[in-house]
Fold this protein.
Amino acid sequence: MTIINSQDFISSIADSLQYISYTHPRDFILALNRAYQREENQASKDAMAQILINSRMAAMGQRPICQDTGIVTVFLKVGMNCRFDTSRDIQELVDEGVRQAYLNPDNPLRASVVADPAGKRLNTRDNTPAVIYTELVTGNSIDIRIAAKGGGSENKSHFVTLNPSDSIVDWVVRTVPSMGAGWCPPGILGIGIGGTVDKAMVLAKESLMEPINIQELMARGPANRVEELRLEIYEKVNELGIGAQGLGGLTTALDVKILDCPTHAASLPVAMIPNCAATRHIHFTLDGSGPAQFAPPRLEDWPEIKWEAGKGVKRVQLDGITFKETASWRPGETLLLNGTILTGRDAAHRRIQSLLNTGKPLPDGVDFTGKFIYYVGPVDPIAGEAVGPAGPTTSTRMDKYTEMMLSQTGLMGMIGKSERGDATIDSIRRHGAVYLMAVGGAAYLVSKSIKKARVVAFEDLGMEAIYEFEVQDMPVTVAVDSRGESVHKTGPALWSQKIRDYRERT
């Protein structure tokens, strides 16, 4: 009988979550660098460069790769010859580990979990509870796999019950474009096939824990139908030309992982869950000999990549900027922003809407006239930082508020990640506004351009409060210009055609 010390279990959970908050799996770094080296679209190449540089900086500084440090999912395989030295249950033990990790003063992680999800949606303040899947298996140890899944990619999950004769590949190829860029490609697609509805979803998420090995599979060839599907889906998804951050390019998926399970003869349940460019997961075992140990990241695991502003990059002063100047910006153009911006996410927009609808003024310090709003919920700062990692959140969630903001507040433009909906693009065009895109998955890098930060309203919302940032050379891409041209439409269309033309020639 193996005795598992509860403190060893808790500290292993806590240490692993801290570790994956700032350390990419090495196989992800290698796969992304491979995609970076072969990328031909300069905008996508620049985005991947920022992600790789951010990854290295985060590991060396031991600060989060992404400001969205995720909701914790834990897969436990508990050997039946194991026993814990405590009366606390598994949920309590895991949650204590999560609590210690997310409240660590040396590297505080953003608490994103809200309770009463269909009601008040109050932040639990410590990112608990975790989502746990437990199996009892033979053996004398506990196998633990942990992921911290960001909301942007989690929200792009899909499920379908196909007819047994339907094509899984066709469904995936139809579905991936509908996911937009909110899942921060390039990443990994996890697919679960079979079982029941709930089982397929769990299989999809569990598959994302597997190492990236699509290149090895391509080299040796498939040995079964699942491996054939992986290769076929990988090829066809990348032929879509969506590219890094949805800007168009050669790589959308770094790998496709599939787990399957026997299912009912009348059913073909299929789930798909993406992992973003901030993929975070780890695998370790406890055997009663002590807590898990995690080797510190090595500088040599990261490629030597530098991102520098090219000749065509514009340095922009936002304070006092005019519509005439913003009208000169073109889709795909890189800007370096300087000056003051305000922030706001879902909860802040809801409060602004309530105030405007009831004729009440906005709080003191909140004046969007001639300003840009950045869709962000930053990590709390530590000593010497103006703000913690502060990458963009998915902009489409704010689409429902955009017309209100542009027509009633004097707002000139927005900064976020991923595409905007057609109605929002039309609103941007009618108001002569612009939408700029920061790179999702480069939160620590972006935070270095934020020189001052202060909360100006709705402090009770935590990371969703309205901040005022003073930025210096914050890199962004013009995603929708004042005429309503969207790079998330033109980029993938152009590169999917280029890829098709190349396939036909060869």
Observations:
- The longest strand covers residues 466-480.
- The mean pLDDT is 95.
- The domain at 314-491 is CATH 3.20.130.10 (fumarase).
